[in-house]
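Example (one chain per record):
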Amino acid sequence: MTGISRTSADLDPRRRRILFRAWHRGIREMDLILGQFAEAEIATLSDAELDELETIMREEDNDLVRWITGEKPLPQHYATALFARIAAYRPDFDPVR
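Predicted structure:
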């Protein structure tokens, strides 16, 4: 998958902005992880979860990758259900089309 495949026409401006930012990170691994997670989940996330996702997305990509892969210990303030869902999400890195 090379980028967004979901239409954002039905999303409010905040969700559109988050979806765009999730696909335009800094390193491709995080584009794929956060981008595909956001595509799948953005429409159903609560306002509190959107707040948390925006906070997570402010972190450096290299740190996020290390926390998700377990290479680096996850800071306690990110030991949340949402971060666990993101870390458990397995993007389709090479879909057969």
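Caption: The chain has five helices and no strands.
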